[in-house]
Amino acid sequence: xxxxxxxxxxxxxxxxxxxxxxxxxxxxxxxxxxxxxxxxxxxxxxxxxxxxxxxxxxxxxxxxxxxxxxxxxxxxxxxxxxxxxxxxxxxxxxxxx
Length: 97
Known about the structure:
Elements: H1 10-40, E1 44-47, E2 52-55, H2 65-72, H3 76-81
Antiparallel strand pairs: 1-2
């Protein structure tokens, strides 16, 4: 990783990231509410001044792989053989109590 261009003190940096995450959470909540309102209008195209939206149905399939593996009685050694584990760098930001 490269060095940061501008060094902030740790307190400012942590608080900055926390505020960004809080703003994103608020925006996601607003987006979810607006999308639900749009979906309630039903299927069809809607025009805004800057954007357009299209509400439609779509099929989605998911596979419960744990259940498939259990039912097929796949041995743990096969699962382990095809499982990749690696260390990653994580940064968790939470509000102080």
